[in-house]
Design brief:
alpha/beta, TIM Barrel, eight-stranded parallel beta sheet, 12 helices, 2-amino-3-carboxymuconate-6-semialdehyde decarboxylase, Metal_Hydrolase
C-alpha cells in the first residue's frame, strides 16, 4: 500500500552479482557478469558501473538522498539473454530473477522486483511469468524485440496477452539497437538508436492492428518517454490518413491508441515533457529515471517539478500516483 505524495520510479536498473563462471550458462550469447565495478560481456569490458547497481544498501542510501520512496527494479538489458537457446535462457532468467528478488529483499517495501523471461520461447516465457509472480515479482521487463521479431510478432502478442490475463504489468526497454555500424562513437546507439527502437515498437503495435487484439487490461509501459513517438505522432497519423499501405491493418489512426500504454518521464526537458503529456494524457506518464546510469535523470523528478504547464495534481500523478495504478500498489 502506498501513501499519497510518494515518489515512485518505474525505470531503475539492477545488475546483480554474477560471476564469470555463472555467466557461462549463456554459452557464448553475451555472457554478462560483474568484475570490480565493470559490466563484462564475455571477456570484454562493457561499461564501468557504480555500487548502486549491485549493492542494495548503496541504492537505498541514494534513494534517501534523492528523495525517491520506491523503485521498480529491472535488470540491465545486457542480461536479457535472448540470443541463447530456450533451455539455457530459461536457466539464466531463473538465476537472474532469483538474484533480483534477493536484492530487493533488502527493503521489499521500497524495492519492487521486475522479472525477465526467455522471450524467444512463448511457452517458457509464460510459465516463467507465472512462477515469478508467485515468488513476489511485481511485473515483467522485456526488450523491445527478439532478433528480427518486433512486438507485433504473433508469439510476443500472445505473451503480452498472457501478462494481461495474470495481471502482470510489462515494462518495455529498447536494446540491441539497429544500424549500430552507422553509429560509431559518441554513444549514438543510446542517443539515436534507443529512441528509434521505441518508436518502431509502438508503431508496430499500432499499425499491425495488435492493439485491436490485445486485452485493454494490459498495462504496458515504454521507457525513455516512448522515444521519438510523441514528436512524430503527427507524421504517423498523416501517413495513415493518406496511404492505404499504412492503414491496411489498423482500423484507427495511431493517435487513437495512446490510451493503451504508458510512457516514463525520462525526456530531460520540460518542453519535451509538456508535449509528452499533451500527447499521452497526464494519466499515462510516470516517473522514470534510468537509475543509476549516467544518462539517467540525476535529480529524480526535477523535470516534472520544473514543467510550468503542470499543476500540482498533475505533478503528483506523474511522480507517483500513476505508478501506483500501473504496479497495482493501491
Amino acid at each position: 500500500m502506498t501513501r499519497s505524495g510518494q515518489v515512485i520510479d518505474v525505470h531503475a536498473h539492477v545488475f546483480p552479482r554474477i560471476s564469470r563462471e555463472e555467466s557461462r550458462i549463456l554459452a557464448g550469447a553475451g555472457e554478462p557478469w560483474l568484475r570490480d565495478g565493470m559490466m563484462m560481456s564475455g571477456d570484454d569490458d562493457y561499461r564501468p558501473v557504480t555500487p548502486e547497481l549491485w549493492d542494495a544498501g548503496a541504492r537505498l542510501a541514494a534513494m534517501d538522498r534523492l528523495g525517491v520512496d520506491m523503485q521498480a527494479v529491472s535488470s540491465t538489458p545486457l542480461l536479457f539473454g535472448y540470443a541463447a537457446g530456450p533451455d539455457r535462457a530459461a536457466d539464466w532468467c531463473e538465476m537472474v530473477n532469483d538474484r533480483i528478488l534477493a536484492y530487493c529483499a533488502e527493503d521489499p517495501s521500497r524495492l519492487l522486483p521486475l522479472c525477465q523471461v526467455p522471450l524467444q520461447d512463448l511457452a517458457t516465457a509464460c510459465a516463467m511469468v507465472d512462477k515469478a509472480k508467485a515468488a513476489g515479482h511485481r511485473g515483467v521487463h522485456i526488450g523491445n524485440h527478439v532478433g528480427p521479431r518486433n512486438l507485433h510478432d504473433q508469439d510476443i502478442v500472445a505473451f503480452l496477452t498472457h501478462c494481461a490475463d495474470v495481471d502482470m504489468p510489462v515494462l518495455v526497454h529498447p536494446w540491441d539497437m539497429l544500424a549500430t555500424d552507422r553509429m560509431a562513437g559518441y554513444m549514438l546507439p543510446w542517443l539515436v538508436g534507443m529512441a528509434t527502437e521505441t518508436q518502431l515498437s509502438i508503431l508496430s503495435l499500432m499499425l499491425s492492428g495488435a492493439f485491436e487484439r490485445l486485452p485493454s487490461s494490459l498495462r504496458l509501459c515504454f521507457c525513455h518517454g516512448g522515444g521519438s513517438f510523441a514528436f512524430l505522432l503527427g507524421r504517423a497519423d498523416n501517413a495513415w490518413r493518406n496511404r492505404d499501405i499504412v492503414r491496411k491493418d489498423s482500423p484507427k489512426p495511431p493517435s487513437a491508441y495512446t490510451d493503451r500504454f504508458y510512457v516514463d518521464s525520462a525526456v530531460f526537458d520540460p518542453r519535451a515533457l509538456r508535449l509528452l503529456v499533451e500527447v499521452m494524457g497526464v494519466e499515462r506518464v510516470m516517473l522514470g529515471t534510468d537509475f543509476p546510469f549516467p544518462l539517467g535523470e540525476q535529480e529524480p523528478g526535477a523535470v516534472v517539478r520544473d514543467c510550468p504547464e503542470l499543476d500540482e495534481a498533475a505533478r503528483a500523478a506523474i511522480l507517483g500516483g500513476n505508478a501506483t495504478r500501473f504496479l497495482g500498489l493501491g
